[in-house]
Write a structure and sequence with these properties.
Distance between the termini: 31 Å
Structural class: mainly alpha
Strand content: under 5%
Shape: elongated
Helix content: 55-70%
Radius of gyration: 14 Å
């Protein structure tokens, strides 16, 4: 899970409980990356396809798996920014 376990998230939503600071941070990273990828690939569906697919640049890991940490999110964002500026080789 990128933010929190699905059952935990569903329970919190049902009870109107807030996310923890760490979960909020993960959610903010996810939305930032998703916005950048959506702009680059032309929509959220295309962005999610890209985020879910393994990448050689990440040793076969999917970008979505990496954004659980700030370092991973930074690596994903860097790759997206390079792609945006035509700097992929």
């Amino acid at each position: 899970p990128v933010v929190a376990a699905r059952r935990t998230t569903e329970r919190r939503l049902k009870l109107g409980q807030a996310l923890s600071t760490e979960e909020s941070d993960r959610l903010a990273r996810l939305f930032g990356i998703l916005e950048t990828a959506s702009d680059l690939f032309g929509g959220r569906g295309e962005a999610m396809d890209w985020l879910l697919a393994p990448k050689r640049a990440f040793d076969g890991d999917a970008p979505l798996d990496l954004i659980r940490t700030s370092a991973g999110a930074e690596a994903v964002d860097t790759l997206l920014q390079r792609a945006r500026h035509g700097m992929l080789a």
